[in-house]
Amino acid sequence: MNRGWVHPAPIKTKIMTANNHITVCSLEDAAHSVELSGYMEENGISDVSDFLTGTEADRLQIDGNIILFARVEMSHSNIVIYWDGNYETDEGRIKEILTRFFSPNFKDYFEKRTAVWSEFKDSCIAFRDGQGTFYSIWQYIERN
Known about the structure:
By secondary structure, this protein is an alpha+beta fold. The protein has four helices and seven strands.
């Protein structure tokens, strides 16, 4: 029986090194990425949307809208692909939050919440990094 608990994803999977560049882009923009296209060809992936639909995607909630996202790790960079199915959320805000989440100093901008779905509120990320079925919940903290 699922009681609403989400198991914490390993934190170490999301810490980027200074050598890994992070690009955050929409599903539509990712379809035009030359680097991603090469990665997909090498790995037998036929469509960019497969990164978000082939498994339970990670989630970002902004103003009640759920934005799905997935990180694609390549040898020298990481691409975070997101999909806002309603196209109602400010793209700049999506990119800001996801860029900070995948930065080496993400803990300066996020607070870990209790791993229950009731904690997945506005400006929160439900993250499992493509592993397992359980999510960690992270609350984005606005900094001036």
